[in-house]
Write a structure and sequence with these properties.
Helices cover 26% and strands 29% of the residues. It is an alpha/beta fold. The chain has 2 domains: 359 residues, Rossmann fold (3-Layer(aba) Sandwich); 88 residues, ANL, C-terminal domain (GMP Synthetase, Chain A, domain 3). An 8-stranded mixed beta sheet has the order 6-7-5-3-4-8-9-20. A hairpin with a 2-residue loop joins β23 and β24. α1 packs across α2. The radius of gyration is 22 Å and the shape is globular.
Length: 468
């Protein structure tokens, strides 16, 4: 991947404010970094959507480093935990974040970005296939990362490029963090095709973002999560009339039918393709998409598997395939399935895991060759595209002496507490520590029901919530 950075030197790779950064400069910067950081180094990139940060990631792929991608909004306690578990050889970070200078020294200062080097070299072996470590779409502080290989990234990137038909003439705006696998795929696909990416630190629900969007009248595509498309529909933001637009993409959670229909109808009116996509970090990340030609008939579906991918519906107990039109656990197989999880640097030398199936945790059925998700078998939901483990949050809140029971669906977390005085503190922890917006949280005052075993009776809570 990224083998053709030098082929189109006059193409603009990034637009950062008033600066246009060409592929010739990007190529030069990547080479310069290879002279400072040796191949197969462990490189922690504390990510933001700046040229310096993204350039370090591209160099990591091109120069065969192993990069660990973490969003710069990470809690300081978690960041220190990651560093102590992985002891990266190098750390790329904004100059606003402090790094332990007892362990690290400054190697490069580049604008507002600093690269630190570990003072004492550690001899260790890394799996030759390993390319990146990326969080499992979530921000709940778990030290567990998904390990993706160069082949995982390469095959998925080329597949996405093909079905979206991305060309060197495309221009997009990066509205998602690239420590999130969906945001990373936008970088991978556009840089691989020598296309252009507009950089911004603004969130796509901020007015400044849309002011910047309107300024660039030659944007050809836009990708985001369901929440942002709901926002577009609610405020009736006019972006569909842009004559340069070729396609819109949505992924990162379930897009409700009414919003999907609204986006589709506006796209159809303006001869723009609309892609509804499905994926997980463990799949690098794309697994399926709805063909634009199948809309609007297949609204509500996640479509069909991507090229070289395959879905099956599995009986979890017997691990046998279900017949058609029967609900089962959706599992995926393909060359983009990850090579294992990692909890510390010792895991980076392990052989690549060869998974027969990637269990998605989603319950689904198939109809007319398209798959439809009906629910989840695990206690993982997504809030604004960020995967959240409800069990992890319950355990963490216990550390603050808050005993809670949590249920929910995507973009809807319902927390049951027994002491009203803890309500504001619980809300504050979820907002500051986990970065979950209060609009996704409902807090109920209720005695928490338990089974005879002492475990929380989630079925009763679900029935209570549905009733009230």
């Amino acid at each position: 991947m990224f083998e053709n950075l030098h082929n189109l030197n006059n193409n603009v790779a990034f637009i950062d404010g008033d600066k246009k950064i060409k592929y010739s400069k990007l190529q030069k910067d990547v080479i310069n970094l290879s002279n400072k950081i040796p191949t197969r180094s462990l490189f922690l990139i504390i990510c933001n959507n700046s040229y310096q940060s993204i350039k370090n990631y591209i160099a990591s792929i091109k120069n065969k480093y192993i990069s660990i991608l973490i969003d710069e909004k990470v809690n300081e306690e978690y960041l220190n935990e990651y560093i102590s578990r992985y002891l990266p050889d190098f750390i790329s970070v904004s100059n606003t974040i402090e790094i332990n200078t007892k362990l690290y020294k400054v190697l490069i200062e580049d604008n507002h970005n600093i690269i630190y080097a570990l003072k004492t070299k550690i001899d260790r072996y890394f799996n030759k296939d390993l390319a990146i470590l990326i969080p499992t779409s979530g921000s709940t502080g778990s030290p567990k990362f998904v390990k993706l290989s160069f082949n995982n990234l390469n095959t998925n990137t080329k597949t996405i490029i093909k079905y979206l038909d991305i060309t060197p003439n495309d221009k997009t705006i990066l509205s998602l963090p690239f420590s999130y696998s969906y945001g990373l795929s936008i970088i991978n696909t556009h840089i691989e095709k020598n296309a252009t990416i507009i950089l911004t630190a603004y969130s796509s629900i901020q007015k400044n973002f849309w002011d910047l969007f309107k300024k660039h009248k030659d944007i050809t595509n836009f990708s985001n999560v369901p929440l942002v498309y709901q926002f577009l529909k609610q405020l009736k933001i006019k972006i569909f009339e842009n004559k340069s637009f070729r396609f819109f993409c949505v992924a990162g959670g379930h897009l409700d039918y009414n919003t999907a229909k609204y986006i589709f109808e506006n796209c159809k009116k303006n001869k723009i393709r609309f892609f509804i996509m499905y994926g997980q970090t463990e799949a690098s990340p794309r697994m399926s998409f709805v063909r634009p030609s199948d809309l609007p008939n297949k609204l509500g579906s996640i479509g069909r598997p991507i090229n070289m991918g395959k879905f099956s519906l599995i009986n979890k107990q017997k691990y046998q395939k279900y017949k058609k039109n029967t609900v089962g656990e959706l599992v995926y197989s393909g060359p983009n399935v990850f090579i294992g999880y990692s909890n510390n640097y010792h895991d980076l030398g392990l052989k690549s895991a060869k998974y027969k199936y990637l269990k998605t945790g989603d319950l689904a059925y198939i109809k007319n060759n398209n798959y439809y998700i009906v629910g989840r078998i695990s206690r993982i939901i997504k809030c604004a595209g960020i995967r959240v483990n409800l069990d992890d949050i319950e355990k963490e809140l216990i550390n603050y002496n808050f005993h809670t029971a949590i249920i929910g669906t995507d973009d809807n977390m319902n927390i049951f507490i027994e002491n009203e005085s803890s309500k504001n503190q619980v809300m504050k922890i979820l907002k500051t520590r986990y970065k979950i917006h209060p609009k996704f949280i409902n807090i109920f005052l209720k005695k928490i029901p338990r089974l005879k075993s002492g475990k929380i009776d989630y079925k009763k809570l679900k029935n209570y919530h549905e009733k009230y």
